[in-house]
Amino acid sequence: MRALKELARQPSALFGLAIILGVLILALAAPLIAPFDPDNQMFDGLTLEGAPMPPGGQFLLGTDTLGRDLFSRLLYGARTSLIIGLVANGVAVTIGLFVGITAGYMRGWVGTLLMRCTDLMMAFPALLLAIVLAAILKPSLWIVAMVIALVNWVQVARIVYTETRGLVERDFIMAERALGAGHGRIVFRHILPHLIPTAIVWGTLGIATTVLLEATLSFLGVGVQPPQPSWGNIIFESQSYFQAAPWLVFFPGALILVTALAFNLVGDALRDILDPTQRGRG
Amino acid sequence: MLGVLTKRLLQSALILLGVAAITFVLLYALPADPARMIAGRSATAQTVANIRHELGLDQPLLTQFLHYLRGLLQGDLGRSYAQKTQVVTLIIARLPATLVLMAAGIFVEVAIGLTLGITAALNRGGLTDRLVMASAFVGVSAPQFVVALLLLYLFAATLGWFPMSGYGSFAHVVLPAMTLGILGAGWYARMARSAMIDVLNQDYIRTARAKGLSARRIVLRHALPNAILPIIAMIGIDIGQFMGGVVVVEAVYGWPGIGQLAWQAIQQVDIPIIMGVTLTSALAIIIGNLVADIIAPMIDPRIRSH
Lengths: 282, 306
Hints:
The complex is a heterodimer of chains A (282) and B (306). Chain A starts with a helix and ends in an 8-residue tail after the last helix. Chain A is an all-alpha fold. In chain A, 72% of the residues lie in helices and 0% in strands. Chain B is mostly helical and 306 residues long. In chain B, 80% of the residues lie in helices and 0% in strands. Chain B contains 13 helices and no strands. The termini of chain B are close together.
């Protein structure tokens, strides 16, 4: 609650929140707002020469190379981006919490093994790995989400590990242990609640990374597959045409940027608020 | 120092081995059949089986991996399925282009990032500071391929200042380097700003001010050398990340580096090349981190004792 109040006091965070809310509404209400069926290749959606229609007139943001309404496709694309952003990042944060807490709490060989695994993942070229996996696994929305989760959990795990190690040393955990509390009780009642701020911060910042990664994969043609619209694959489909129809790159590109920016702004503000050691800096 | 270094090198070798094992299992266990890709759509089952046997793909996974490792120890990354050439040869041929791009990209991002970050730190809380931080945020949130396409549209297609794609002259490197630089500069600007603010708050800077030194001298000679450490560590990490992230920029600009090599290989399920590039990238990441760790104590004696 305090966090929300402080958040509301920062203009940049408010700006970010407003954008997130806007994109969310557009995505949820896509069927109500969209003037056309996003998959309909309209006869009058192309010029007489067969080129896409520029923005303005009947089609608010113009049409794509197949004569589909760009505005409608962007609205449905927002759904794709947000679903993948939430699912992929939710899974990544969950894996990160699980690995980080287990490694930090267990110590011994289990902890060492898990942390060596994250070392290994840190040395992996993440983008390359994601592209390879997505390409080989015949991409679909859920596969793309899982691939992104698979490369994005590592950072969360490392931060959670460090924090858990610190918590385990603290007196109140020692006291709890002396009182005979079981591992389950200590982890769920005492460690996990202290990690919620971290999870919230990375849950927000991570969505920005995820939205960018999904767009990149889709742009390369190994992400979400057309005709299902995603901001990345709209650009992928019109890439060879972008000199004649720059709006096909500009509008989806701007949406990707603004959405990632919004999550970064809010996540960064949350970090300042929830992490007292960062407070007063910057 | 030497003991620590030996330990780190040993760890690095183990990590590399782990990366090799995981990539190998992923590539060979996943449902992509390179033999079928090579044979083509109309091939008979017999042809596919023959090719599979020729490539050793009918062997157990462990046998294949040990075979691969034996080659790896001798610097042999195997032979490309599609191009029938040694993977090492292909990677070495493509590496210079990527290194040129990397050097240019890192130069641009450090130059822009440091300038902006220091300017912001000196004007802390002011309008300049806020503008710089806002643009840094935009920079780190921008999708690489969109920036690449927009720069192409603006400076190549519309204004005609630079070529659309290719490799070979200074003009070719400008737009790809700018793409990388604009995006990376945001991270450097934020880091440089917070490092500078930490240093500027310290007593010796106040002493320098009291002595009446010029602001320019204080920043360049007294503050910057102490703020540079996190930035150098970041360049090390950047070098590593670069190799794996170069696919997009090289694809958009038709830059003939290892990113493009990897991208073509991915589309052809040319596993030896994918393995080779992944390992090269992992090696770059490990070396980048090592370099950052080794250089840090040289610059900052405080770290040496640890």
